[in-house]
Amino acid sequence: MDINILHKVSLVLAFVMSLLLSHAHSFVIFDRTASCVRQFGCSADLVGWITEVEDIDTCQKMCDAQESCNYFTWHEGSGTPSRLFRHFCFFFSECGDLDFECTSCYSGPKTSGCPLRRRNL
Predict the structure, then answer these.
(1) Is the CB of residue 83 less than 8 Å from the CB of residue 77?
(2) Is the dihedral of CA 78, 108, 65, 57 positive or negative?
(3) What fold characterizes domain 31-120?
């Protein structure tokens, strides 16, 4: 095969690869994830609670549905005092007092309070 043809083919391949790579970042989605949920408990301004809530996402959605709820705490149920509150979902208007001793508590804002995160596909 002629060296000139190989050079042209490699240039075309390099051009195609650069096009693909430059457009790879244009496939972006924005979503609200549980990334704004952290391992601590809220302990002020309680406005309600629901028992037998199986997971964090469900607790957050229940907070979304309540006008007075701006923050939630979900108790996983392991350890003390969470064993007493296993799968309880607490709703708060504010979360000013943070309880870092509750190692099986997960708290965060209602979904609209979570920032959108950019993810490249």
Answers:
(1) yes
(2) negative
(3) Hepatocyte Growth Factor (3.50.4)
